[in-house]
Specification:
Shape of chain A: globular
Shape of chain B: globular
Number of helices of chain A: 0
Oligomer: heterodimer
Largest sheet of chain B: 6 strands, mixed
Number of helices of chain B: 0
Structural class of chain A: mainly beta
Number of strands of chain A: 10
Structural class of chain B: mainly beta
Radius of gyration of chain B: 14 Å
Largest sheet of chain A: 6 strands, mixed
Strand content of chain A: over 45%
Distance between the termini of chain B: 41 Å
Order of helices and strands of chain B: EEEEEEEEEEEE
Largest interface: A-B, 26 and 24 residues
Amino acid sequence: GAGVSQSPSNKVTEKGKDVELRCDPISGHTALYWYRQSLGQGLEFLIYFQGNSAPDKSGLPSDRFSAERTGGSVSTLTIQRTQQEDSAVYLCASSQEAPLEQYFGPGTRLTVT
Amino acid sequence: AQTVTQSQPEMSVQEAETVTLSCTYDTSESDYYLFWYKQPPSRQMILVIRQEAYKQQNATENRFSVNFQKAAKSFSLKISDSQLGDAAMYFCAYRSYSGGGADGLTFGKGTHLIIQP
């Protein structure tokens, strides 16, 4: 079956602009995760959604970051007023239930110029 | 907070040989999961193997096996009969059993595995 998909694959944006990154989880997976992968910080966990429940936003790096998940499926990660330090690969993952294996998407490479 | 340490930034092995990647972790929990993920240049993170902390038996998946030492908080990955397709970044990851998944995965910094033909 289809895996986790993310769009766009690559995004170049100017400093100060807003960007939206999209994640389509595997059908039937209730848990969805966002991670950030950068050279300096490695892989960081950002946020977790379980179904339609409100997420714990404490892992988001700043209040410029927000995420939502509509209808318990597709998720969007939004970064407002992008900064150069936001440049990274943003990975999305989903799992059938929270403790089980997470399946990752191919990521979105964000470059802020 | 949990931490995961991979002390080998890069490893090189001859094709068909065996290589072991090291991982240590720090936690105060008794129940948790450990994973090895592979990330080729395509960026796609692929699950290689999983170990539940309550299981004493080491997990194996074909050419991949782990040496899980709970008391030492060590979780190494052994790759037997290395193949060119094994070349990738390998990440060790920790997952708390409690909390319903809210903590996500904690990753090590990764080991870059090079396969010499």
